[in-house]
Structures are given as structure tokens and as C-alpha cells.
Amino acid sequence: MKFPSSKKQIVALVLAFTLPTLASVAFASGSHSGGHGKAKKSGGHDHSEGGHAKIDYAKAEQHEFGKASDPKKAAVTITIDMLDKLRFEPSSVQIKRGETVRFMVKNSGKLMHEMVLGTDASLLEHAAMMMKFPGMEHDEPHMAHVAPGKTLSMGWKFTNAGTFHFGCLVPGHYQGGMKGTIVVK
After folding, report:
1. If you classify domain 7-184 with CATH, what class do you get?
2. How far are the Cα atoms of 10, 40, 53, 62 from residue 43, in angstroms, in the given order?
3. H or E stretch including 182?
4. How far, in whole angstroms, is CA 37 from its chain's centroid?
5. Is 126 within 8 Å of 116 (Cβ atoms)?
6. Rounded CA gap, 35 and 142, in Å?
7. Closest by alpha carbon to 46, among 147, 130, 142?
8. Best exposed site among 79, 113, 140, 150 by fewest CB in 10 Å?
9. Concatenated DSSP letters for 84-110?
10. Spatial distance between the Cα atoms of 71 and 58, rounded to a whole number of angstroms
């Protein structure tokens, strides 16, 4: 695949991939069990903008890269800014093992962006799925789908040491370099 070289070509590519298709509408309506759901309102959060239903943090699913944690109890707050030039600022953070972090995920752009935590392999797999089904909507504690000009909070406890990643999986964004690294020591 040849990557576009101009801003107009990038915008056209992003728009081509983000327009919902008939298949993605069926996919996003609940026929998939990979952690995406139909947008809905619950507990004052709009799920289409990255808010999550009430999470029982005591029963949060353990992932290789940690588990959901109450952002109000975080020891550290890190602001991650998402930019239309398909970059995160900062793109690399260091965290202590066992530390609970509140990510303030800010979308300073005019395009929809998201921050998804994971391993390199899980993000690559998910990015490929998003290319096939661009209208998928997110509702997992390790994903923040943020509308332009908005900021959302996401709490995460990094229970294992290692190098983990985050990325914007809006079709074309991850492939365009919108990714970052989390080093847990």
C-alpha cells in the first residue's frame, strides 16, 4: 500500500475509512463480542464519546498490561493530547509497576480520535479489525473514544512490568503513526 504524501490525501483517506458502511453498522450493533458495543447512555456517560458504564473495579478484568482502576484513586495523572497530525503528545510515558494512573485523554483536533491501551500485538490485531469495520463503537475500560475538543478520563493500574502501547485505532490513524509507548518499571 502506498501512503499518501499530502494533507489533502491523508484527510481523504481518513474520511474514506471512517464513513460507516453497511457491514460496520451490523457489526457495531452487537454481533461482535470483542469489546465493542452499541453507543448508549448509562450513568451520565455517553458511550459514543468514550464514557463507560459503571465499572466494578474489584471485578475488573486482568489484562497483560494491567486492569481498570478508579481514576479518582489514581496516584498519578498523565494528560495525553491527540492531534490531527496523527500523533499523541507525549508519545512515551514511564510508570511504576502497581501504580494507578488517571489518563486525561484530550482531543485537540477536529477529527475523532481514541486512545486504546494494549500490547503491540493486540493493537495491531484491533487496528486491522477497525479497517474492516470502521463504524465500531467502543465501550471497554482500556479505550477512550474522544470527540473533537473533548477530554475524557481513564483509570488504569499497571500490574506488570514491561513495555506496553497505546494507539488510535480509528481506521488509518494507527497506520499513519498514531501510537505511543508505556514503559512500566
Report:
1. mainly beta
2. 37, 10, 6, 23
3. strand 179-184
4. 14
5. yes
6. 10
7. 147
8. 79
9. TTTEEESSEEEE-TT-EEEEEEEE-SS
10. 13
Residue 73 carries which side chain, given as an amino acid letter? K
CA distance 42 to 49: 12
Cell numbers at 95, concatenated:
510508570
Side-chain-side CA neighbours of residue 110 (13 Å) = 2
Q: Show me where the domains of the chain are located.
A: 7-184
Handedness of CA 133, 134, 137, 142 (dihedral sign): positive
pLDDT in tens, the chain (185 residues): 445 555 555 544 444 444 333 233 223 333 233 333 333 322 223 333 345 557 888 888 888 989 999 999 999 999 999 999 999 999 999 999 999 999 999 999 999 999 999 999 999 998 888 888 877 766 788 999 999 999 999 999 999 999 999 999 999 999 999 999 999 99
DSSP assignments along the chain, one per residue: -PPP-SHHHHHHHHHHHHS--HHHHHHHTT---SSB----EETTEEGGGT------GGGPPPBTTBEE--GGG-SEEEEEEEETTTEEESSEEEE-TT-EEEEEEEE-SSS-EEEEEE-HHHHHHHHHHHHH-TT--B--TTEEEE-TT-EEEEEEE--S-EEEEEE--STTTTTTT-EEEEEE-
